[in-house]
Automatic annotation (TrEMBL):
Pfam families: CtaG_Cox11. GO terms for cellular component: plasma membrane. It is found in: Cell inner membrane. This is Cytochrome c oxidase assembly protein CtaG. GO terms for molecular function: copper ion binding. The keyword RNA-binding does not apply. Keywords: Copper, Membrane, Signal-anchor, Transmembrane, Transmembrane helix. Belongs to the COX11/CtaG family. Exerts its effect at some terminal stage of cytochrome c oxidase synthesis, probably by being involved in the insertion of the copper B into subunit I. InterPro entries: CtaG/Cox11_dom_sf, Cyt_c_oxidase_assmbl_CtaG. It comes from Undibacterium pigrum.
Length: 198
């Protein structure tokens, strides 16, 4: 066998080894991507941050709750945005009795000239309050699609579990609202001119 043939055979062997390694890496990357969703959900549960927020309570649970009129808890509302839109609560805070059904409304304005999908992530302070803050209706349960320059009011219906520790006098509910979907097409106009502002 000539040197040239030996060299070609050696290259084929190296190429076959490289192909095998690349297939293993591709398989590992696919496995990691597949496992990323449950891992992310676990991290969100541990940190109290949750993108795809499930409903906290059912109507049956609300009808069984007892209102503790001997206590008042101040609930503060906060809004953060990651993008060119306006997002805010209609009131900064309110006093509620544990077990009492309450509603707050958040306002959002898409100040862009294109449609977008967005998601809100709730967080709580103190963090232990997340276990006692029960939402029945919330815009954070699903992604929101906003038309160009659209203004929208989005309610949150909640109650505080009466088992909330007595030393918790103030809870802050904070939402971060960020774009997750559609991006402007090439040559799209700049962000909206402010039409539809609240």
């Amino acid at each position: 066998m000539s040197q040239e043939e030996q060299g070609a055979g050696s290259r084929r062997k190296l190429n076959a080894n490289m192909l095998g390694k690349l297939l293993v890496i591709a398989g590992l990357m696919f496995g990691f991507g597949y496992a990323l969703v449950p891992i992310y959900k676990q991290i969100c549960e541990l940190t109290g941050v949750n993108i795809l927020t499930p409903k906290d309570i059912s109507v049956k649970e609300i009808s069984n709750s007892q209102i503790d009129r001997t206590r008042e808890v101040t609930v503060e509302f906060d809004a953060n945005t990651q993008g060119p839109w306006r997002f805010r609560p209609t009131v900064a805070s309110m006093k509620v009795h544990p077990g009492e059904m309450t509603q707050i409304v958040y306002e959002v304005v898409n100040k862009q000239s294109y449609k977008m999908d967005a998601q809100a992530i709730p967080s709580y302070a103190p963090q232990q309050a997340a276990n006692y803050f029960k939402k029945m209706e919330c815009f954070c349960f699903k992604q929101q699609t906003l038309e160009p320059n659209e203004a929208r009011q989005m309610p949150v219906v909640f109650y505080l579990d009466p088992a909330l520790p007595k030393d918790v006098k103030t809870i802050t509910l904070s939402y971060t609202f960020f774009e997750v979907g559609m991006k402007p097409q090439a040559g799209a106009a700049q962000a909206g001119n402010g039409q539809g502002k609240l």
